[in-house]
Every structure is written in structure tokens, then in C-alpha cells.
Please model this.
Amino acid sequence: EAGVAQSPRYKIIEKRQSVAFWCNPISGHATLYWYQQILGQGPKLLIQFQNNGVVDDSQLPKDRFSAERLKGVDSTLKIQPAKLEDSAVYLCASSFYRGPGELFFGEGSRLTVL
Amino acid sequence: AQTVTQSQPEMSVQEAETVTLSCTYDTSESDYYLFWYKQPPSRQMILVIRQEAYKQQNATENRFSVNFQKAAKSFSLKISDSQLGDAAMYFCASQGAQKLVFGQGTRLTINP
Model:
């Protein structure tokens, strides 16, 4: 079974530029998560989708971050314009259930903002 | 709101010995799950062990076991017979109805 796929693995941009990250969850997983992991910290939930609907985006900085999940499968996370403090690893995860259960993570997309 | 606290930023252990990683949590929910996730260097995070809060019996997965103290809101992870492949960041996490909240992590080093 294929795991959670993310791309790109690494991205370096200048501040005020834009960037997009893509995630393809495990087939059949209805719930998809985007986490932000700043160096030395635990992952912080940015947004959670159930199929193509948003369940929780309370910690998503909506003035610069946006995310969508087309047709309840793939998802894209966009940052525009980027700030220095956005430097982090962006983790995508998926799960079969909406409620408590194991999350399957991708390898992450490491963003460096200069 | 849920919070998870890991008070040990770093731990080290000799290969083949036992180590315990600490975690405390706070939640207002009556039904919740607790997890330990492992994040090896430059690799994806994977689930190590989970505990349903309504179960009194401590979860065990091979060399990994937990000490779940519900009243104290404590959830520690014990790794027995430590192996070099256990070296990683370990994250404690709590999940209620929906959101999974992580602690800050503990970096575990295995000394050969």
C-alpha cells in the first residue's frame, strides 16, 4: 500500500514570495491533515479536512495561508506572501477515520524562507 | 483545550538498557486517546503505541509499553532493550473528538 506522498521535499524562497505544497493521502482515507513543524517543536495542526470539507482551520493564518482538497483526495497548501517565521517542515497526514485513530504521515516538505 | 507537555527535551540511554520518556497532558474531554509517535531523522513520523483512556490496562507493543496514570494525567513511554534504531524524536500526543495535539518532543539518543 502506497503511503502519504508529499512534494516538493525541499523549497527555498525569498520572503514575500509564494509557495505551494502538494499532498496525496493514502487511498480511501477520508481525513487529511496539514501540520506545521517548526524546528525543535512538535507539529501544530493547521487544517483538517473530512473528504473535501474543512473540519478545523482555527490555527491556519488565513491572511497568508490557504488550503484546498479537491474532490476529497489530493490537497494543496499555499503560502502567500511568505514570512521568515514560516520556515518549517509542513507535514501532511491522513487517517481512515474522522475520530481518534492512527495518523499516517508523509515525509514532509521543508520550507526555508530567506 | 488540550495540552501536552514533555519535560525532557533530550534523553540518552545505553544500548540494551531501558529508558522512560515522560509526558503529561490536560484535556476537558472524557473520551480521548493518547499516542506516542516516533520521528527518525529525515523520515516520516510513525505510530509507536496508543492508549484508549477508558482502558485501565497499560498498552504494550513488543519492547514498548506505557504507564498510563489517568488521575495524574500522566502517560510515560518505556522502551526496553534499547536498540540503535530507536534513536529518534518521540512525540506524545492526545486526541479527543477530532484534533490531535502534540507535545514538544524528546530527542532520544542510543549510545552503543
